[in-house]
Design goal:
59% strand, single chain, mainly beta, globular, 145 residues
Length: 145
């Protein structure tokens, strides 16, 4: 964020230092589903509180590099809305992401990165997720740490 005060438009030295402290990277991952399930809680059929659970192996450049799990809980049925929480586990550490998903889902969803551990302990940013068939998703990670 750039703040402009008075007539001066030049960036401040503190803004330059702040930007230099944060490393921003973008990388691609492919998620291939290894398991999925539905948890029917409360009323029979889809109801508030029901969950969808997914686990995926993660690949980068065709090589398995980690895994991803997500749990989405129905917060509303008609129209459908789900609160989704996921964790990406990579060799350098883990980072968590969450989103409120409305169904039918759009062609891509930006999911906020909410924290992490290891090399991702100061993680911020977002993950753009795009379905690529029934059991595969493509992730573009926009990570600031």
């Amino acid at each position: 964020m750039t703040l402009v005060g008075g007539a001066a438009l030049a960036p401040s030295a503190s803004a330059d230092v702040s930007a230099a402290k944060h490393h921003v990277e973008t990388f691609q991952l492919v998620g291939k589903q290894t398991s999925a399930g539905e948890v029917d809680l409360g009323e029979r059929g889809v109801s508030v509180g029901d969950q969808r659970v997914v686990h995926e192996d993660l690949y980068r450049d065709g090589k398995k590099v980690g895994d991803h799990s997500a749990v989405c809980t129905f917060t509303q049925v008609n129209p459908a809305a789900l609160q989704c929480l996921g964790t990406f586990a990579l060799p350098e550490g883990q980072f968590a992401a969450q989103s409120l998903l409305h169904l039918p889902a759009p062609p891509s969803v930006d999911v906020s990165i909410t924290g992490g551990s290891g090399a991702y302990r100061t993680a911020q940013g977002f993950v753009r997720t795009v379905p690529a068939g029934e059991t595969e998703r493509h992730f573009t990670v926009h990570l600031q740490r």
